[in-house]
Amino acid sequence: MENPIGKEHIAPWEKAFDRILSPLDEFIHRQTTSGVMLMLCAVAALYIANSQWSDAYYRLLNTYFTIGIPQFQLSKSLHHWINDGLMAIFFFVIGLELKREILVGELADIKQAMLPIVAATGGMLVPVLIYVSFNPEGHTLHGWGIPMATDIAFALGALALLGKRVPTSLLTFLVALAIVDDIGAVMVIALFYTETLNLNALAIVVVVLLLLVALNFGGIRRSLPYLLLGLILWIAMLKSGVHATLAGILLAFTIPMRPKYDPGRFLIHINEMVGQIKQAYKREENIIINDELRSRVRALGEGVQLVQAPAQVLERRLHLPSAYIVIPIFSLANAGIPVDWSSFGDILTHPVSQGIVGGLVIGKLVGIAGFSWIAVKLGFTTLPKGINFKHIIGASLMGGIGFTMSIFIAELGFSGQPENLLMAKSGILMASAVAGISGFLWLFFTAEKK
Fold first, then answer.
1. Is there a contact between 21 and 29 (Cβ–Cβ < 8 Å)?
2. What does the pLDDT average to over 55-67?
3. Mean per-residue pLDDT for 314-320?
4. pLDDT higher at 68 or 279
5. Residue 61 CB partners (closer than 8 Å, separation 6+)
6. pTM of the predicted model, to two decimals?
7. How far apart are CA 311 and CA 257, in angstroms?
């Protein structure tokens, strides 16, 4: 039967009901757009840091902001608020993504997950070995974790430029690889980039985590109690010496992945509710004055929320601010490095920048593609449908785009070492550019357009 309402008369909210995307589709779409924004913010930060506004830029980042009451307050520079505070939101979203992928996503089936797990393992080990070969001892050794990371937003953004030359299964492979990569990076930050521990604060962390787990097992499916306890968890983690952003990961893993209503119960509930809404509508069509109709519609909306897992709801709601606000601000605050072309040769010959460029460009290629080839040849796993080793090589090169997590680890590893931090950031930017361009060109000329 033909729809009596023409397409030109369909309201935006009506279109929203027809827009159905899988979690993976939404993830790829948002990360791709976020990657483009990251590129623009990185270029903007570089320009500002090397312009007449550079002094104002650094003064702003070093401006202190204090919140709280005199007896209990936190005073941090804007740079620290961004790296310790805003980035906790980013890590919270990462934690929600990790939990979903491990429970029901690409990493839930061990056979399906074997290839990205093996590839990511190689993509972490080989870069570390290359970095350590350039920096076997001393303060520069502290940056060994920098070339481990892959920036999924940048990598997917670069892949998206290739359009139909890239099979969807390659995007899925890269997403799964980057998620395993994030697990490794989070473990490295927690175990090796931790300051002196405050045992009293750690005790509060443990108590809050137990309360969060109790809420989960107690059937609490509202997000607010978790978020309030999560704020306390973040403050305690900040005082403990363990990096505060890890509070986001821990909080994410306590958020329920099971909804309050199962789908069967929801179907019964919604059918009953629709009948009640129809009866109320017959009595009075104006919802503004029809209290019964308004309450039934509100109850229906409540049921729609309760049939969704709280972790999935939060991931969906926070993905936009994380991808489009938090990460671009982080890029603006951390990608601004002074470029002195007269000392460019020193950057190219410095062991920190050499180790990072070698680790991200060569290490990721050898680690991801090499370990994948070995695993397939030994029969441990198979390539996904539609993918060949030319695609794997291209994805391996794209994996060398380290940006966000690499810069984050560099800030931790070289805290108080401005020269090494400058060399690390320079190396990250150079390596990410080389890896992204070479990966794009490789796939452009070797992958067939479908």
1. yes
2. 88
3. 84
4. 279
5. 77, 78, 79, 333
6. 0.74
7. 5
Report the alpha-carbon distance of residue 413 to residue 407 in Å, rounded.
Answer: 10
Q: Convert the pLDDT of each residue in 95-118 to its tens digit.
A: 888 788 778 776 677 777 889 889
Are the CB atoms for 424 and 143 separated by under 8 Å? yes
Residues 152, 175 contacting (CB under 8 angstroms): yes
Alpha-carbon span 261 to 308, nearest angstrom? 8
Render pLDDT for 248-287 as a digit per residue (tens, 0 to 9). 888 998 998 887 667 777 777 777 778 888 888 887 877 7
Tokens 């395993």: give the residue. Answer: 180
The pLDDT value given to residue 122 = 95
Distances (CA, A) of 324 to 33, 331, 336: 8, 11, 19
Q: Which two tokens stand for residue 388?
A: 């060949």
Asked if 210 contacts 232 with a C-beta cutoff of 8 angstroms, the reply is no
